[in-house]
Design brief:
Helix content is about 75%, strand content about 0%. The chain is mainly alpha-helical. α2 packs antiparallel against α12 and α13 packs antiparallel against α20.
Length: about 400
């Protein structure tokens, strides 16, 4: 009887999946048609198509090639650090801190430094180095996308906020981003182990390759070692830069269209970065939640975290306008720093980053984890700011 019941359940599951598969094409067409019908009706079909092309073209020239440049430089520096033992030194020094907080080896701290100084894909340049990846279990290696992204463009964000006349508030934001990073990284590791239990003990680098790297002969000349490290690391950066093109262009273009509104004159012209502003509209419907959790005094401030989903650089561009309108205070700066740094356009880069290291199927888990991590970063920054204000007063 139990066998018969089990067989019946399997048959029912098979029929259900077959039924879903039969209509998946129709469902896909309906969703795509509804999305583009809505956008086209709002913007005009010609403007919609022109905006899509112009946005993708601008992203390719001004974002992808910029990120490729970052990948080349950080790849070269990272390979140099690996070659001359900086990685091993960091592993020994920071192991007591990294393991209990992030469940990562101490060498992962190099990825945080690299992404803080540059941008999210820098962590992939490091991950592509076999000697760097040899320190990780597979579940830890996959979570590097979340760990590194949480500090992406951190230096730029903090310098920008300090340039607006705020000094200790961005530091509060950095603390919030670190807390969000812990949550995001740990959640991602949980999801990976849950879906792939064997990744808990499996090495990120196969044993044969690890042994080959360890027994690799060392060049006698320091100059040759330096030159080879810089060129090999830079070449890896080029490969990573090419790998992120589809994810950045496709995902970012859609996010931008759903985030931004009409042009400066309130009309659609088909220019890059115009859109239907659906995401800010949806966020405005639950503004009371953001007011309590983030301490936002004006609903327009929601535009910053929504825009940071696609590009933190674009989100920073909103701040001067907010300041002119008098919507910005110290709390907003702390929250903006935390969520801007922690999210830093992850919605447009996570797909490409995971794809480049060969774990594209885990992208939804990474996005869910990092969404929660960014919200935690903002909440921690808000309540830390409130506590400091209370102590000062």
């Amino acid at each position: 009887m139990p066998f018969t019941r089990h067989a019946a359940n399997l048959l029912a599951t098979f029929k259900r999946k077959k039924s879903i598969s039969r209509y998946s094409g129709v469902i896909c067409l309906a969703v795509v048609f509804a999305l583009f019908y809505f956008i086209g009706q709002t913007m005009g079909v010609a403007n919609m198509l022109n905006t899509m092309m112009h946005t993708a073209h601008d992203l390719l020239l001004n974002t992808v090639f910029y990120l490729m440049g970052i990948c080349v430089l950080t790849g070269a520096i990272g390979r140099l650090f690996v070659e001359f033992g900086v990685v091993k030194m960091l592993e020994r020094i920071l192991r007591p801190l990294m393991k209990p907080l992030f469940n990562l080896p101490g060498v992962a701290s190099l990825g945080a430094v690299m992404t803080f100084l540059s941008d999210n894909p820098a962590i992939i340049s490091l991950a592509s180095d076999k000697r760097f990846s040899s320190y990780f279990k597979k579940f830890q290696f996959i979570s590097l996308t979340n760990f590194g992204t949480a500090f992406g463009m951190g230096l730029l964000v903090m310098v920008f906020m300090i340039g607006q006349g705020y000094f200790w508030q961005p530091v509060v934001g950095l603390f919030g981003a670190a807390c969000g990073c812990i949550v995001s990284t740990r959640m991602m590791q949980y999801f990976v182990i849950k879906n792939y239990p064997h990744y808990l003990t499996e090495e990120a680098l196969p044993l044969e390759e690890k042994q080959a790297e360890e027994t690799k002969p060392v060049e006698k000349s320091t100059f040759i070692r330096t030159l080879n490290s810089l060129l090999d690391g830079g070449r890896t950066g080029v490969d990573v830069g090419l790998a992120i093109i589809p994810g950045v262009l496709i995902i970012s273009t859609l996010v931008m269209i759903l985030t931004f509104g009409p042009g400066a004159e309130g009309e659609y012209s088909g220019a890059a970065y115009e859109g239907v502003a659906v995401l800010p509209w949806l966020a405005g419907k639950i503004n009371i939640v953001f007011e309590y959790l983030f301490g936002f005094g004006d609903p327009h401030l929601i535009a910053f975290p929504i825009t940071a989903l696609g590009a933190v650089g674009a989100a920073l561009g909103l701040v001067p306008g907010f300041m002119e309108q008098g919507w910005i205070d110290g709390n907003a700066i702390a929250v903006f720093t935390a969520i801007g740094m922690c999210w830093s356009g992850y919605l447009s880069t996570h797909t490409a980053m995971l794809d480049s290291i060969g774990y594209r199927d885990l992208t939804p888990k990474a996005i869910i984890s990092h969404t929660v991590g960014g919200l935690v970063a903002a909440i921690v920054a808000h309540f830390t700011f409130v506590l400091i204000e209370f102590l000062i007063m």
